[in-house]
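For the sake of clarity, the format in which proteins appear in this thesis is described at this point. The fold follows as a row of integers, each naming the local backbone shape at the matching residue. One such record is shown here in full, so that the layout can be seen directly:
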Amino acid sequence: TTDVEGIDTWHKVILSSNFRSGGGVIDAVNEVANNFGVGTNDLQMALTKTSAAMKGYGNTYSETIGLITAGTEVMPNQASKVARGWRTIGANILKLAQDTDTLEAANGKVSVALKDSNGELRSTFQILQDLYPQWKTLNSEERSALALSLAGKTQTEVFQATMDNFTHAIEANETAMDSQGSAARENAKYLDSIQGRIKAFQ
């Protein structure tokens, strides 16, 4: 469940960072926390730390939630580290895109477009979603080398954890996008249960 009072401050942070469809963040967090191995506090903390940066890298809040969810499921109780990791990785991908249009690695096994047809940077999530099928074909040494090149020494764990669990990044992103009204519905159920208890004692 979602503590609406508890998320008031960070919700304002999300909105002030100009995330697209910012008003749906509460619903998205609630629904993802109900369906994946990540808590509302994890998502709250991570979004507060990384929302503005991830928006700058072209990600919607649902895409950011997807990345955070996938990483935090593999790295429980380390949502803050996962958030810092994606802030760094996003910056590294942006820097790479300033020099080339395509991510090439692993002797041709990896080839992913960094920019769209208009020459604009694709979101971190979109790039990694295209990378994921290729990632699965790499051996451990190739994965480690790619993670090091994109994440740097300090964030390779976050990158590898998220990529190894990227199916859940995709599913969490979809869940977040389809979450409209989730918090309100859950609150209504809670209020109904209270009313039911009151009536039982009358």
In short: The first helix runs from residue 8 to 16. The CA atoms of residues 19 and 55 lie 6 Å apart.
